[in-house]
Design brief:
five-stranded parallel beta sheet, elongated, two-stranded antiparallel sheet, Rossmann fold, alpha/beta, 7 strands, 23 helices
Length: 538
Amino acid sequence: MLESIIWILLAGFFTGQIARRLKIPALVGMVLAGIFLGPQAANVLSPGVLDAANSLRVIAVMVILMKAGLGLDREKLAQQGTVALRLGFLPATCEAIAVALAAMWIFQFDLATGLLLGCILGAESPAVIVPGMLRLKSLGWGVKKGIPDAILTGSALSDVLLLLVFSLLLAFLTQGGAIGVTLGSLSLNPLQLLPLQIILQVSLGILVGWLTARLLVVVLAKQYWTQNAVQDALVAASLALLLVVLAEHIPIFSGYLAVMATGFFLIEFDAPLARRLREGFNSLWIVAEIILFVLLGASIQLSVLGNIFLVGLLILAIGTLIGRSLGWYLATLGSNWTSQERLFLLSGNSAKATVQAAIGAIPLAQGVEGGDTILALAALSILVTAPLGAWAIPTFAPKLLEQGQVDPTKVSVDRRIVLLAAVDTSPLAEQVLTKAADLARRCDGEVVVLHVQKVDDPQVANRLKQQTKKHLADIRHRFIFSSGSIPTEILRIAQDHLATEIVMGKRGHRYLNDLLVGSVSRAVIEISPLPVVIVEAS
């Protein structure tokens, strides 16, 4: 089993990086790695790992849904009114119905089996959509109207709806009829119970998320049971996973919705704690993403795709271009979304992967007639829509969405930190290097060390290089010599190397001397567009 895990992590990582360098979504490389490692090709994954694939996928989905919750913006959702709610129900419902009708026509499925297939293909993939939407939020695309938030919320709600209907239809098909409920003289069949189940699952899921967020604030922020951010993330992830497991044993609330709600309420209750957890779950996702998509590829049955490939593409096209498009139109009717923003839903809200991988094989395992066809269509939807969705979201967002102000309290904004340390030949140079090193370690930044020399002195240059090597031995750095006006050169080099801050010394000149001769540090502060950290001589 350990060998299989090594294969998954290494192959998934490197194929993902190769895909990125080829300007292809990383998940494509990971899925291909899974296909190669799985039973269809090399068959190097142990049966134990394959048997545990569903559990590992659950963990990965939990991580990505917590990330989604920690990135939601309540104010933006409130601005959208009922759009997010409608996006949660109408597109998925319309696509499921369109797929059902197409399957009844092409495969001669009965209505129940067609709807079962519709529920599988209509579900959206949080593993593709959530990272894509959070990335858009970090860049500001669509944030002014809360489009990424609406898509994230709608995606979670639609999966709750379709999974409920899926379980109802599966019970009907496998048990020869579904069980209803009788309360005195009132008798309700499963179809009549469905709205009540949806309301119960959603409302209790939100309530459980609220309670969990409260508990996390008490444990992590008020009682201080943990000592660092790693422990914070470990406790939060464990509780979130517990919610998913409890929901499987007590199916009265949606575990996945509860996880997402937990992250959402954490922002409201304790923003600093939410920020720490966001960073922790970003780190967890690096590993979870590889496991999720490699195992996804390993579960795909390539042999069953050949016979239904073309008709499968037709069904996917009918479901997306007719059914889901109608749902998008109805969901955004009366909103302030432009036609271009509505068109973005085609790329931003169509990817399928996680849910299809989790439930696509269940009808076949339960003996449902046409289960092999359903599994093949689920696999085809993953292979086609997951890579397309991962590629289309960042590609079309700049073309169709308006870029707004990024809210760093809701997302983790990737920022490369480069510090420019300006040093001279005085003893103050050591203090400047020490300060730059301290700042760089705190933010995992790089340091550009600059010395503006008046005359070429190899001895001085060697001494400064030795000082730099001593103080910045564990930090990415480079040393640059320049000549000319010192303030001008500092700003020029800072601009050329995309520095985010300038660190320099101040010798403590007397006021009269500064007035007559001028102060380099003061000159830089007056004209620099960047923050300047001044180190005064001790």
